Amino acid sequence: MSTDTVSISDLLDAWARPEPPQPQEETGFFTDTTVCIGCKACEVACKQWNQLPADHFQWTGNSYDNTVTLSDTTWRHVAFVEQFDGHAGRWLMMSDVCKHCRLAPCYEVCPTGAIIYNEFGNVYVQQDICNGCGYCVAACPFGVLDRNHDDGRAHKCTLCYDRQKEGMEPACAKSCPTDSIRFGPITQLREEAKQRVEQLHARGETDAYLYGADAAGEYSALNSIFLLKDKPSVYNLPDAPRRPAAHLKTNYLLSFGAALGLAAVSALLFAREG
Amino acid sequence: MFVELSPELAGERGITHGNWLVVWNRRGALEARAMVTKRIRPLHVNGRVLHQVGIPFHWGYAGETVGSIANDLTAILADPNVSMHEAKAFTCNVRSGRLEVRDRTRPEPVYAWPTREAAPQTPKSDQPEGQAI
């Protein structure tokens, strides 16, 4: 007969925290849109690996883009932009994904600490901690995060954390037939991306540039960088992404000032009446 | 199922983007939604304007999404070397509207296929691929 005695140390184990994993080299994506052929293999590979449901079977009529947007169940989205107004037309395609910002607004606003930077420097939503408040959904300037209607929690690209832990590259990068999506240590990818831009410039493609390689304005650099050939807004990316926390001080001061002003006005009115 | 066509052809035939159109030739007819796009350009051959339409062949009467079958319009012939259908370009005609009579040689009911039973009391995000009902 076994004795089910509970010692104090057993009880304290509930609060014990395991050692966090050793930080690894920061990883990220480099999405070269000039070689994207719009096959959507990344979307399918992402859904298969992450066991996301196949959904949204509506025909939108917007070029070949029936995925429409990133969502809780769609972590890769290929955007199609048709530019055929001039004589020579072009069809821009871009595989959109979580930007894994170096200073992510979703990480800053998450009240439960569910959103963390994992050992690979990727922004990761811990599903067992997320309480579904949706602050991150509002904070993300790229519209990446979305809450699931069934479990209520926020879901987004994990940068295939589970695969990375096993030393594998993410499913989308693995499946990309043209290597438009590249995965690797982010410092190395930044170098590769800069070389690619130089190569394109040398070939006369002078409109090629990098999106998110460096910090710009109030926004940090991204760990998921893009090589674009037109304005970011053409690809449905913000030209100047906003980081809500950067406006905290101004907004607090403004509301404080407004409160003071209103108090002064009401005091004045009451004083007149009396 | 959708069919891509140029704005010029769409204007000529009174077809509007997103609405139904019928593509037919002597072999068969199919209905689809019109995707009017400047990607498809009319060809100028010997002084004649030749219009092109693009028909994807990824639909059938079964599957996650259903639609008309592009091969209803194609001739049945295969390249003997690679056993692949080789007649992917052919003449056809288009008009606005839908098919009046459905092709009765095709099975009428649209089967849900492949059948995927939703696991009870499991959130959709934890379901295997496919639609949770």
Description:
The complex is a heterodimer of chains A (274) and B (133). By secondary structure, chain A is an alpha+beta fold. Chain A has one domain: 2-Layer Sandwich (Alpha-Beta Plaits), CATH 3.30.70. Chain A is built from 8 helices and 10 strands. Chain A has a 4-stranded mixed sheet with strand order 8-1-10-9. In chain A, a hairpin with a 5-residue loop joins strand 4 and strand 5. The longest helix of chain A is centred in the C-terminal third of the chain and has 26 residues, at 248-273. Chain A starts with 7 loop residues before the first helix and ends with a helix. The model of chain A has no long low-confidence stretch (mean pLDDT 93). Chain B has 133 residues and is mostly beta strands. Chain B has a single domain, classed as Beta Barrel (Barwin-like endoglucanases). Chain B has one helix at residues 7-13, and strands at residues 2-5, 20-24, 29-36, 43-45, 48-50, 53-54, 78-79, 84-85, 93-96. In chain B, strands 6-1-3-2-9 form a 5-stranded mixed sheet. The two termini of chain B are 23 Å apart. The mean pLDDT of chain B is 81. Chains A and B meet through loops of A and loops of B.
Q: What's the number of extended β-strand segments of chain A? A: 10
Order of helices and strands of chain A: HEHEEHEEHEEHHEHEEH
In percent terms, what proportion of residues of chain A is strand?
15-25%
- The rounded Rg of chain A comes to 23 Å
Relevant terms:
heterodimer, A: 274 residues, alpha+beta, Alpha-Beta Plaits, 4-stranded mixed β-sheet, two-stranded antiparallel ribbon, 28% helix, B: 133 residues, mainly beta, Barwin-like endoglucanases
What is the fold's blueprint, element by element?
The complex is a heterodimer of chains A (274) and B (133).
Chain A: H1 8-12, E1 27-32, H2 41-49, E2 77-83, E3 90-96, H3 105-109, E4 115-117, E5 123-125, H4 135-139, E6 146-147, E7 154-155, H5 161-165, H6 171-175, E8 181-185, H7 186-202, E9 209-211, E10 224-228, H8 248-273
Parallel strand pairs in A: 1-10
Antiparallel strand pairs in A: 1-8, 2-3, 4-5, 6-7, 9-10
Chain B: E1 2-5, H1 7-13, E2 20-24, E3 29-36, E4 43-45, E5 48-50, E6 53-54, E7 78-79, E8 84-85, E9 93-96
Parallel strand pairs in B: 1-3
Antiparallel strand pairs in B: 1-6, 2-3, 2-9, 4-5, 7-8
